[in-house]
Each structure stands twice: as C-alpha cells, then as structure tokens.
Amino acid sequence: MGIEQKLANLGIVTTTLEKAVNWSRTRAMWPLLSGLACCAIEMMAAEASHYDMSRFGMELMRASPRQSDLLIVAGRVTRKMAPVIRRLYDQLPDPKWAIAMGDCASCGGVFNNYAIVQGVDEVIPVDVYIAGCPPRPEGLIHGILTLYEKVENERLTKWR
Amino acid sequence: MVQLQEVTLDELKHLVSDRAIQGETMLLNMGPQHPSTHGVLRLMLELEGETIINCVPDIGFLHTGVEKNMEAKRYEQAEVMTDRLDYLNTVGNNLAYCLAIEKLVGLDVPPRAQVIRVILAELQRIGSHLIWLGTQSLDLAAMSMFLYCFRERELILDILELVSGQRMMTTYIRPGGVWRDIPEEFYDAVQQFMAMFPTRIKQYHGLLTKNPLFIDRTKGIGVISAEDAVAWGLTGPSLRGSGVALDNRKTQPYTGYEEYDFEIPTRTAGDVYARYECRMDEFWQSLRIIEQGLKKLRELDGAPVRSSNRKFVPPPRSELGASMEALIHHFKLWTEGFDAPAEYVYMPVSSPRGELGVYLEGNGSNKPHRVHWRTPSFVHLQALPVLSKGLLVADLVAIIGSIDIVLGDSDR
Ligand code: SF4
C-alpha cells in the first residue's frame, strides 16, 4: 500500500535486516571438507556431478575450518577422534552450524561399543540429524535444506 | 576450548631421529583433518626443508571395535558389521565373511548364487577403483576426474540398490548363497553399464595417461622393488605394480573364479604410475569377468540362489504355511541362529586393495569366539615410510593415493 508500491518500478525491494542477513547466510554456506567414514563417501557423492550440491550454494568445500560455516560430521566418531572434532568445531568462525550425518554420528548406530562415541552431540551442539546408514545423498540434501529453513527463521536476538 | 595435551619431544624419541629432538629437522603434523589423507589418518612428518626424512603413521582415529562387536552377535547378525569395515568394498567384505562361515560349517552354495556373487564383487571392484581414481586425481589437482568417476559410480550403486535395496551397505550375500534372486531388470542394467563403460575408460586414459603434469607427479615416485614389496606384505595392485602377479582369485580361487578367463595385469616399474596402470587394466579384466558371468547367469535362470540346508538357511516364506518343519526351522534360525564347531578357518579373498582375510573361530555356540580381519590397508600403511623416504611432501600425497587405503579397513 505504501512505499513498496511506489518503489516497485525502481526495482527496489524492502525487507527486514533479519531476513536479508539470514537469506544471505543460507545461499553460500560452505561446509568443511572433513569425512570420517562410510558416510563421507555419500557426502562426496552428494558433492559430485550426479547430485550436485552446488545447486544449494555449496560448491565449495573448504579444507580449512577457518573458511567454513558448516561442519558435516559424516561418519562414526571414535573416542580418539572426538577431541579433534571438538577442536575443528571450535575453530569454525561464528556463525556456525553442525549436521550429524548418519546413524553413527547421530546416536552411535550399529556400534554400541567401547570405541564409538554414542552420538556426536556428546561433543558438539548439533543442528540437524540425518538418519540412515548411510543416508542417501538426497537425505543429506534434505538435511541441508532443513538447516536452511532453521537458519532463515533465526531471530536477530539469537544471532551468533 | 579443548585442553590440549603437551607432548615433550622426549616422548617421540623412539619414533624420530636425534636430529629432530635437537631441533635440526622439523616435525610436521599432517592430519587427521587433511583433505588428502583419504580419511582420518594422521602422519607425523620429519622434514628437512621439504624433503621427508621420516614419516610416522598414527592410525586408530577410526577404530570402531568391529571385531569385538562381532563376538557379541550371532553369525548372521554379525554380517552387517562387515559392510562397514572397508566401505568401498562392501560386497567383498560380505563375501569374505560368508565364505569363512561356509568353510567353518561346511555349507554348500548353489552355482547361480556363486555367479551372482562374482558379478557383484567385480562390479564393486570397479566401483572401488573409480573412487580411488577420482580421489587420487583430485589430490594431483585433476578435479574433473573426480566428477567423472563419481558419475560412473552412481550406475554401479544403482545396480547394487536394484538387487539389495541399499546403495552401499548391501548385506546381500548371505551364508549359503544370496539374500534373494536378482530382479529381471538386473541384466539390462548391467548390460547398459558394460556397453557404456569401455568408452569411459578410454576417456580416463585420454585425460591422464599421457598428461605430462600427471606423469611428472607419478613416474619414478614411491618406487618399491618386488622383493621389498613382498617383504612389506603389500598385496593387490600395489604389489602387482612391482611385477608380482599375485592374486587370490588365481592362487586360491573361491566362489568359482577358476572357471573364468581373465588375466592379472602387472607392471614392473613399481612406482605410483605403475600402480595406476595396473588398476586401469583391472577395469578391463573386471569387465571381462562380468561378461562371462552374465552368460553363465542366463544359463542358470530359475536355479536356486540359496542352499537348501535348513540347519543354516531359513526356508522361503512360501513353505511356512504348508510345512510344520519349515516353521520350526524358521523359528529356530531367527531366534537362536546356528551353531558352529569349535574350530577355526582363515579365508582370504581378493579385495580391490589386496588380500582381505577373515580369521573366524567358533566355540560350538551360535556366536563366533573370535573374528579377526587381515586387511590390506593396514598392511599397506606400514610401507608408507619406506615409500616416501627422501621425497617431497607433495609426492607423499600421490603415494598415499597410490596404495589406495581406506581407513575403515585399516583401523576397523
Ligand atoms: S551411519 Fe553407517 S554408513 Fe554412516 S558412518 Fe555409520 S556405519 Fe558408516
């Protein structure tokens, strides 16, 4: 009714700062290039030509945590690896998110034993869990889109 | 922040040279988070300038306790664990484990099931080599190869999904045969793949084999002589690159490999490039085996795919309504499983990486007493210091790729 209608001819969109920032955060979210086990192969498959995750703003996987926004924990987290995962997560600059990909990272999966941490959420905060052993690449993409939804609805007061 | 443990140099005394302790050479940590260690491998490098004086692999970041876990499960339940060892060779792991069980209890496998096993194992071999090719080239900065290889691998995964319902962790091969017969579409799917793949192999050759950049990074790098390779326990293409034509499919044939006509490709140079050529040739041999397998499979249409020994193999669903005995067998097998004698067997098979062996010991009950895996990646990793001594750090990346390690396989 007001200013938007007048300005539409000029090609200007008005929005809130919250929305604009959240939108930009989801459109170029770079995951950390880090794989642990079998699930990492499916993560690579999702990155590769057939599933092509770059359609969702993820064409770049950074090998350095300093340049990434998202930690995809793809695979089983062992007791020996858990401190390393925590360290990697700490090294990601804010804002940062984490996805637990696969049953192992979510809850230990088929390995209920002495060597495996029963879910990576014992070590780092997790935003999205993806079920499956391994999840299909579509499953991973669904998880990522779910994360996007979450990020788009984040409130300004909760920003990190 | 995580509290990190301080390590004094004295603790490394038995691992690195005195010069490193005195600070003359540099100690550099590579991994476990590193893009070209193919998983969670940590290497401690002792460097002089950029030359590697020593390289100490630190494994166990993916130690899953699979062997111990398998002891707590019945024979058939434990099979799901085997997929998750070497996750690029899931069918091969199932095969090794099932063959070991069959050897332990003396179970027969119908011919049709054997043919299906061979075809799937060879498809998986191609799939595994594709990942090796993709990642090795990626490490050597040939990004496009990675995309091409994964494109072709999808077709193999589609075939595996067609027969088993899962892309990677199939658990399709079962003691006494396979889970169920293949669907009719299987023939077409495999045939399409066979028709398409040869042109793709030629494409890969066109991109890499004569590429000067690729040759510079691989020829004369990581050389190991035949004697050394045998002494360090290398198997599979890593050994064949040094000129030793050793393959369990030929030396100790299993599931009917003796009936197939194929060769073991070898090279004599023993460097990264030779190992590359061996694996590329294996693509052709696997295709040959699959082609022969398909022909055999057609002849065996309608034959059973699982043993009819009801002490070990549950009866088909159709029998349950009609036969009391079948019902009892079904109930017993799914509640208690079967018992294996207190003996032990060792069953080696040829995985895409080398000799994959299962040591299986029974104790008269329905659970294994001990399961041990002799995995090629674990053995190959110990040769890494020998292969990389005196070379540059950049060469190390090529060498890690060329011995084709899978950390799930080595750490278990
Ligand atoms: S969830 Fe399954 S596929 Fe993923 S790491 Fe665990 S065992 Fe492997």
How does this model look, in words?
The complex is a heterodimer of chains A (160) and B (412). Chain A is mostly helical. Chain A contains six helices and three strands; from the N terminus they run H-H-H-E-H-E-H-E-H. Chain A has a single domain, classed as 3-Layer(aba) Sandwich (Rossmann fold). Chain A is 36% helix and 8% strand. Chain A has a three-stranded parallel β-sheet, with helices on both faces. In chain A, helix 4 links the parallel strand 1 (70-74) and strand 2. With 412 residues, chain B is mainly alpha-helical. Chain B is 48% helix and 11% strand. In chain B, a hairpin with a 2-residue loop joins strand 4 and strand 5. Chain B is globular. Classes of the chains: A mainly alpha (160), B mainly alpha (412). Bound molecules: iron/sulfur cluster. Iron/sulfur cluster (SF4) is lined by residues 37-39, 75-76, 102-104, 109, 133-134 of chain A.
Through-space gap between termini of chain A: 35 Å
Largest interface: A-B, 37 and 39 residues
Strand-pairing-aware structural class of chain A: mainly alpha
Would you tell me the overall average pLDDT of chain B?
87
Cofactors and ligands: iron/sulfur cluster
In the residues of chain B, how many domains can be counted?
A: 1
CATH class of chain B: Mainly Alpha
Instruction: Indicate the low-confidence ranges of chain B by residue numbers.
Output: none
Strand order of the largest sheet of chain A: 1-2-3
Rg of chain B, Cα atoms, Å: 23 Å
- Radius of gyration over C-alpha positions of chain A, nearest whole angstrom: 18 Å
Distance between the termini of chain B: 29 Å
Structural class estimated from helices and strands of chain B: mainly alpha
Which series of helices and strands of chain A comes N to C? HHHEHEHEH
Number of domains of chain A: 1
Number of strands of chain B: 8
Largest sheet geometry of chain B: 3 strands, antiparallel
> What is the string of helix and strand elements of chain B?
HEEEHHHHHEEHHHHHHHHEEEHHHH
The percent range for helix content of chain B is 40-55%
